[in-house]
Amino acid sequence: MSTSFTSATEPTQQDALLSLLLSTDTFETFLHELTLLTVAALPEGSMCGITIVRDSGAATVANSDALTLAVDHIQYRTGQGPCLDTLATTESHYIPDTSTEARWPAFCAEAFAHGVRSCLSLPLQGPTQIVGGYNLYNTHAGAFDDDDQQRMRVFAGTAAGAVALALRASDQARLNEDLRATLDTRSTIDQAIGIVMAQQRCSARAAFAILSRASQNRNIKLRDLAAEIVTAVGGPPTAFDTFDLPG
């Protein structure tokens, strides 16, 4: 996607983000396109990564190139760096030159060894909390001047809302998938209970107890046992007998 906001006003930036949201079909694709959109507005040699905060901690969910991902992982591995501090404090952090920066020494030394000289980390502040951070890198020292930093701060503020919306949509889609899986599992177990009720001539409660004991005795999950039973009913008459359910 070639959309750029190099000289755009904020409403145009919002239009570009809305276009991304409407034209991409997955959360991951949207974020990847967002990194490319960002790089297109930055000086030559720039790279972009997006880190989001989940229950398991910070993780890079999109990057414009492999080097960005590698440098992000330096921060995670060393436990220090501008992005991690941005996530902790919601403040922006700029490193004009990794070869002379005194903060985050372990990160800067490795970033410099990878050819990264400038770093700019910006918060993605959602409606109620920080949802992640922009990690901007460049192979040249002093790459991001005051104008670049200000433009990126404005855009990060605009992008945060879109990222928060995409996160919410992604979480809802995941929740729907989990719900469908749960309903499928429940349906399979209910079918297995019905089969055991017919075979053993017992109540639903007793059939469930029989399935639970068989699951424990065979050391397999109840849903897997239920799936076997339901599948076996459509096979040869002797197939169901092999489950040896207690009476």
UniProtKB/TrEMBL annotation:
Gene3D superfamilies listed in its UniProt record: 3.30.450.40, Winged helix-like DNA-binding domain superfamily/Winged helix DNA-binding domain (1.10.10.10)
Protein name, as recorded: GAF and ANTAR domain-containing protein
PROSITE patterns: ANTAR
Keywords: Kinase, Transcription, Transcription regulation, Transferase
Lineage start: Bacteria, Bacillati, Actinomycetota, Actinomycetes, Streptosporangiales
One Pfam family linked to the record: ANTAR
Annotated SUPFAM superfamilies: CheY-like, GAF domain-like
The keyword Kinase belongs to this UniProt entry's keyword annotation: yes
ANTAR domain ranges (all copies): 169-230
This protein's record includes keyword Transmembrane helix: no
